[in-house]
Amino acid sequence: MRIVSSYNEEWEKKYLCNRIGDYEIQFLDGILQDHDYIRDDEAEVLSVFVKSVVGAKEMDQFPKLKAIVTRSTGFDHIDLKEAKKRGISVSNVPTYGENTVAEYVFALLLTISRCMFESYERILKTGKFSPDGLRGFDLKGKTLGVVGTGHIGANVIRIAKGFDMNVIACSVQENEELSQALGFTYVNFDELLGCSDVITFHVPYNDGTHHMINVDNINKIKRGAYLINTARGGIVQTKALLAALEQGILRGAGLDVLEEEGYMQDDMELLTDPHPNPESLQTVLTNQYLIDHPRVIIVPHNAFNTKEAIERILDTTAANIKAAANDEPINLVGV
Description:
The chain is an alpha/beta fold. It has two domains: 2-96 and 307-333, Rossmann fold; 98-298, 3-Layer(aba) Sandwich (Rossmann fold), CATH 3.40.50.720. 38% of the residues lie in helices and 16% in strands. It is built from 13 helices and 13 strands. Strand 7, helix 7 and strand 8 (185-186) form a beta-alpha-beta unit.
């Protein structure tokens, strides 16, 4: 069995090898698109992280491929229909950061609510030790609207209760047992938008969640609310977010993810594309504007990034690879 695996840091290679066992493995540094010249006629398992796009072109590089193992919970970077057509299984890491990402939600929220960035910047740039103009707001008593009550959403609710927040939620699959245990109420999406002081998203990105916040529903949001997104950028339409901020519908936002965030790392790729997408270009330009917006905190898709979470990802990835190698794939996703 031959395995091809991308990696980000050197230590990951040894960590994976120790857990996979006696399989032949080729490591590729960075994302798969950096190695589009490679063709491996023997590789049967491909392991990638979320920033590697795996479509028909990439699958063609590995003609004997029978399993794709993504080192992430999300799998929108993989063409599931194409994989199914070729008989290639796709496995993910269903849980690894339920507490990790939930903690980061409150890192963003507290940064906003207590003017942490502005406070630090004032000291750093001016040395002025004054709280003038830095008044924040309490989380206690505020209503948190949680979109998606899976593993991460449930942990967000637990933490919110520690701050004595009121919690409402909406989810495709409602968990009444969880609702009673944690003391929150399920409502429909429009009611959540209208009643929440803070809205936070914890759903996968797919056709059903694309642009859940959009130009047609921003007026349903409670005026003066805050939005937190640590899920996927495409859940929130960028131009709708900007409009909501400019119209005073949203008072602020904390974003770990952006639409077209791949181009934020290499905007030259978009500019030199022989067939540039005007909508993508507009989104990237809007993202640049939002970075400088005084009421927006943007961080680089970092909510997952703790030592413990990365090790949990690698542990599950190793288990997924070994299962695929034995023709018994686990943690399957598909269309």
